[in-house]
Write a structure and sequence with these properties.
With 218 residues, the chain is α+β, with helices and mostly antiparallel strands. It has 2 helices and 15 strands. The two termini are 14 Å apart.
Length: 218
Amino acid sequence: MKKFVVGAIAVLALLACAQADTIIGTANGANCIPFSCPSITGGNYQQIYNMGAFGGSINIGTISFYNTFFNDGGTQGIATLDYSLYLATTSQAVPDGSLPAGDVLFASGHLNGSNWTFGDTLTITGSPFFYDPTQGNLELTMVISNASDPGSGVYTYFDAESNGPFSRWCPGCGSNQGYGLVTGFGTASGSTPEPSSLLLTASGFLAAAGAIRRKWAK
């Protein structure tokens, strides 16, 4: 009986880890676009993430950008800007600057131009977006307005990779295949696993355990 219960706990633990958070890219450089450089003004920023970079479907609840690779040793800053962040599943491999078909507003907000500490992570929480990599690549579009950079030499450089499973587009830099910001996709709260699925699974194990215990008692 004890072995059965231990096995049940192990299976439930695996279920709880089935939709782990995903980080796309490994930093080998850094870039201040789109959250700090003056070139952010007057245009959108896009990245497309290759479907092969995801281990499975994920219900995205947070998107994170990291500031761990390059420290200029001085004061760092974030731009002042308003943003709307959209997600979509797409057949395109390279973004072109336009909003993709089927785009969904994930989050909108304001960055207040505050100082930034090296090592901090910029995390945006939004409305859950279910992404299934078997249906195509993931496209992220950030529509920017009312932007002003934090000032010359006061930039925050976020982790980037020059040969990653993604591609970016932005005004002034055009299209860069294989280049983009390292991005973390976190599961929406309560979606790992779905409560109803976990409850049914747990109930099944408990029922089976009870049946075996009654059989052994006889």
